[in-house]
Each structure stands twice: as structure tokens, then as C-alpha cells.
Amino acid sequence: YVYDKAHKLDKVKLNVLAWIVVVETGRGWQRKSSSGMLSLPPCGTVAVLLLIGLAVPSMSAPTPAAYPFQKAADPAAGCGQVRYVYDKAHASVPLDHFDFTVNDRFKLRYLVNDKFFDKHAGAIFLYTGNEGDIEWFARNTGAMWEMAPQYNAMLLFIEHRYFGESMPFGNESFTGNNPRYLSTEQALADFAVVTQALQEKLGLQDVPVIAFGGSYGGMLAAWMRAKYPNIVAGAISASAPVAYFKGQNKPESFYRIVTDDFKQQDDCDQMWRKVWPAVAAATADAEGREELEHRMRLCKPLPADSKQASALVNGWLMNAVLYAAMVDYPYAASFLEPLPAWPVEAMCQAMKRSSSIGDDELKWIDAATEAAGVYFNYTGQAECFQLEEEATSDLGIQGWDWLSCTEMVMPMSTNGVNDMFPAGRWDEQAFAESCEQRWGVQPRPSWAAVHFGGRDVSTVTNVVFTNGALDPWLGGGITSTQTPSSPAIVIEKGAHHLDLRCSNPSDPASVLSARAEQKRRIRIWMAEHRYNRQGEIHEVAVESARLHTTVIE
Q1: Is the Cβ–Cβ distance between 220 and 185 less than 8 Å?
Q2: What tens digit of pLDDT does each residue of 366-398 get?
Q3: Is 471 known to be catalytic?
Q4: Is 33 a catalytic residue?
Q5: What is the C-alpha separation between 453 and 467, in angstroms, rounded?
Q6: Catalytic residue among 260, 261, 427, 471
Q7: Between the CA atoms of 196, 199, 200 and 202, what dihedral angle is there, to the nearest 10 degrees?
């Protein structure tokens, strides 16, 4: 899938939470649009630029058009016995926290539930908003809702600036120089001032604040504790690729882990390796493209240019593969799309059944289509697949595109040897040129690691770093404990922030253990905070002291 600036990101239909940019190796090509033409540079790059938790262009638009383009939230109205009910409010925050000559302010949205709250014994559970509508994240972080009654906690979800309804310049927030106030540093400052203002307004200055977040939100939760320990007593940082930056992580790790996930299913990766040559052969001429359109049940013809057609088909298939790996949960869920339990296994089973029919290369396209159908059409409502769809959406692809072009630069590459995908190297220069063309900015690939520390969290206290062993983002996560008070936990059979979801009877023992450790730490952080603020003696004080001298493996 090739991003086209001429169509603007707010006109791209979003139905999954990661953006794939696939640029075909070779010379650049031009794609016409209703508003102009964009010439793309030759990159030979396959890059995932968006974290889960962020909206991406839809690669599947079945008929009727309403499916599956509904907001991807679990259908349940709550988690267990707890309903997702909250009050909505707005706080006035500085447009620029760090420039004293800028006095403008804007309204930042937040959500509050105080049904379980006890100011004398409870806590404030703060969700550090991701790159999208905060209500979507409030409805998809069930673990917080389950824990709230146990800890007499107030739930506070603060929206990230430039996402959801928190637009500093309204509909003009992404025009001209207006995006310049969008950064992780500004967002963290928002969270700090809103939380502190709310505490002061309600007389809750002595109430401990525990930050939660998953994926990019998990990065923000950890950095919130590191940068504002005076406000946040501890943080649960789930599936947070805090080290997925230049010089901190191998660019090929994401796709290698996806490949390993599929390899565990009777070497399913070997079947996928046969798909890409079959797609290249089928899209090489008009007759082949017509046959492919029929076999894949596409809603409209493929582009006449073979490179465009191949990139479009590969991008759609790769979407299904990558997202299934990220949400490979042990039970049926609808986080991104309605999916069965263990969707990677289901895709491989569908692929194996289909590939047993026929003896030509096209059988691998049939098999890949059936596998992708598990992701894009598990409900069976799709009459055809549309590889591109333009529409409107309230999710925040524009905001993330700006962040990825400034400080959240996450290099990715494939080699077709250690992974099951077409080879594509990370081209930093080409990426920088595309950012200059879209936004007029030059990326700073090393800045996030310099500013936040990257993989070195040895001085960060009171953070639980959790990562799923099946999660493709594992390579950029903290997977080994560097300081006793901030344990790193790898969840076997766990996918992307599984531990932040509602508990489920099918949860593996590893996630139950991780949640138990999170709860134990939260209890200790709350006691430490109250002791430091009020001098209260609590029975966990001894356990707290032991935590700071014993590494928890």
C-alpha cells in the first residue's frame, strides 16, 4: 500500500490500528488522484510506521460498505461486572508547554469514572492516551476497569493532543505549520498538568497516581513515570516498544517475529514464501491480473501497471498477516476485526486446506486469499474484497504520520531469508525525502532514544514492563529486568498487550501471573506513596524495601 499525499490522510478509511507502507523495489512510480499526482522515490522499502493502537488505511472494504468499517471495539459494554461508563470533560491546556512567549490554549478531552473511588484508601488510574479517540481506548483496556474496584480507584483517561476531539486548531490542525505543537513531550506535559489540576481541584494531592498504557500508550506510561515521578507513583507499560529506534533495535525484528509466529504452525511460513512470487507472476500481464481479480474476489480491477498491482495485493495480504500476529489472542475477539481464537492458527489451517487443491502456482494465491479472509471476513459478510478504500474517519492517522516523520521513527526491513516476506531494506534517506514532501520536516531518527533513554531503563523505577512472546513489537520492548523496582515480564503465548484486556477463561497462565505481579506492585506503590506523603505505616513497607534490593525474574 502506497500512501498518497494527494488524497490526504483524513480521507483514507481506517479500520485497523497500524499503517503499512509498502514501496515496490525499483524506480518510483506515479499514482493519479482526483487532486493531483505524487511521484514516489525508489525506496525498495517495506516499513511499518504505526503502532498498534493507531489507525491505518483499510485494506478491506467488503460489501455492504458498512462492514467492517465500524469502530473496532469489543462488542461488550463492559468488562465482567464492570460497565464502561464515564463522564466526559475538557481541560484547558497550553498550546506550548515549553515556550513562554506562546500563551494560546486549547481544550483537551478526558474521561472520568469515580464510582469505585475512595480518596482515603484509593488511587487514580491514569491512562496515557494513544494516537486515537480516547473513548476507543477506554473501551479496550478492560484490565483497568477490573482492577478499579479492587483498589478503590478513580479511572482517568486523557486524550492525546491532535487525536480524537483534542484538536488545537480544529479542522485546520494539520494544515500549514499547525502540527508543530504535536510531540510526545507536549503530550506528556498535557497528562501531567491535567492530572495535577484535577487533583488540586478535588483535593486529591495525596492520592497516588498509577499510569497505564499499551503500545504507544505504554511508551507514554513508562516515560510519564520517568519524566514526572512527582506526579506518577508507578506505571504499567504493556507491549511498549520503547527501544524500537535507530541504534537500539534491529530493523528486521518485527517481521522476523511475525515469521516465527507462523512457523510455529507446522511451518506455515513456508507456504507464505511461495505466495509473493506467485503474485508477481500473476500481475505481470493483463491476462494474469484478470485471473487474479477473479480468484481473489476483488471488488474492482487492479491497476494496469504491474508494479502497482503487485504492491497493492502484497500490501493487503501483509496487512492480514501482520495484524493477525499482533492480535493472536487465545479467544475470539474484535479488537481490530472480528476474529476467531488463535487467528494465526486459523489462517494457517485455511491456507493448508486451500493449497491442497490444484497443482499450479495460482493455488498459493487462492490459499493466501483464504487465509486473509480469516482476518478480513471472518463473519462471512464480505461479498468481495476491495484493496483500497477512500472515506472519512475520526481516527488519527494524520497525527501519527507527523509523529513518525519527526521523532517516532521506527526503522523496519525484510530480507526474505530470516523472514517470510519480500525483501525490502529500510531506506532512511528516501523516508526523510517523503517526510519533507508531506510535511516539510526532516525526521530525527535518534532523538527519541536520546531523550527518553531507549533500551536503557536502569534508572527508571516503579514500572512493570510486559511484552507478549508472540507480539511482533517484542524486539523493541524491555525484556530483561535492569533494576529491581522495574521488572520486565515476557508473557508466553501472549500477543499485543494481552494483559491489558479483560480477563478471559482462555487466558494462558503466563498472563495471569503477569497481572498478579502488576497488582502486587500497584499495592506497594500506593503504600509507598502514602508513606512518603503522609508518613503512614503500612504492612507492605517491608515488602517494598525488599523489592528495591531483589531482582524479580
Answers
A1: no
A2: 999 999 999 999 988 888 998 874 333 435 789
A3: yes
A4: no
A5: 18
A6: 471
A7: 160
